Write the structure tokens for this entry.
Amino acid sequence: MGNYKFVFAVISAAGNSGFNYGFQGSILNIIPSVVIDWYTQIRIDRKLNLVGFYDTEVFAPFILACFSLGGIFGSLLVFICAQFIGRKNSIICSNFIILMGLLLQSLAYVTESYEVFIIGRFLTGLSAGLLSGVAPMYLVEISPYCVRGTVGSVYYVMVAAATALANILGLHQVLGYYNTWPWLYVCCLLPSCLQIVTMSLCPESPRYLLIDKEDDDEAEEALAWLRDDEDIDHEMNELREEAAMLKDINRVTFARLFKDQTLRSPMIITTVILMGQQLCGVETMLHFSVFVFHMMGYNLGEAIDLSIGLACANLALAIICMIIVDKVGRKILLMGSLGGIIMSSAVLSLTVLLRSSSEGVEDIIHLCSFFVYLFVAMFALGAGPIPWFYAAELNNQLARPMVMTIGLTLNWLIQFVVIMTFLPLQVSVDNYVFMIYFGFDIAVIVFVVLTMRETMNLESIDIAELFY
């Protein structure tokens, strides 16, 4: 993996960047009834209309999706922040936004204001959207090419770890009680403060310093810190060679991104893969897992236990992906992951239909839950970790921030739509709800097979030459 300083930089960059995403995205999955009861009481006290937008069935998904809404706006900031204040400073600044969002969410209970809660959730989503671009970018840029996939996957491992932790801390016996749930957000203040301190000790991306800022001395100093006692002459020469090649390309504009085939092809590939990550419908499993298991016939306690197990399975397979991605390859893992998602979602839909027509068959319920687990496991084995860092890996240094902005904005937008429409779709189509994403899965895997380029063990110059 490298020396201790490099590992410290990786953990610092991925730590709260992934933690905020996973925790905020999952915590309302465990405590929905507590928050809804709190909201309902406020609505009654204010004598709000019980129908329309303020109806619980409409407003509850909106509160959940506010995080994704913030993510859309945050991802739009990736280009500006990464380009003008740098990767490292963007990560640090994002944490101040997280702190504001967490404070507002923790104060919502005492202020009896769901508006404060929504603003806080939006702000944490805003920072998560920004971090989902700049953190993988930083990880890819500081890594030797031989471990770039492993290091890039750490971001999603932290997302999965936070998802599991949120499921545990949200238990009724821990902090998921009607008057203790605000402390869930107070607990999250520490990781943000810790990342501000640790990232301040880390250097800026050497690639950013040399290619974007044209500061050779600072780049060499940053690389020397990251590699510690290792000889950096060879790697610095490669960076200078890459900088010289990109200097001839000149500035990358939005219009040129679509006109220049060498820039357009990697942009399209990474954008479709980032969109496909959400089009598979995984958010219906992770954000609504308690509801999904309850819908299958489990009681609430069993559904919560299964949800915790699902989050732990997600983490375990994400760790496996991190270990093997630089040995097996990105394309093979992603194809296998998407193939597993297609198979498990198809069989899951069939077993759900069979359950509804075969009352009293308890084994069918367990079969349904098995395929939910298989779906999430297959997602974590490739489609979860790979798109985040592959988008940064495939595009050259000058195009990377703009491409990440485009791809991540669409990624967060689709996530928002999926979360907002899942419950209405479940009411409308009932047992066929999981089949809706089936067609998207097939389209994405066909696209991956036909267009995705393997980047394992390729240096940045070699990846750029794939499109010439």
About this structure: The first helix runs from residue 4 to 30. The two ends are 31 Å apart (CA to CA). The CA atoms of residues 164 and 309 lie 8 Å apart. The chain has a mean pLDDT of 89.
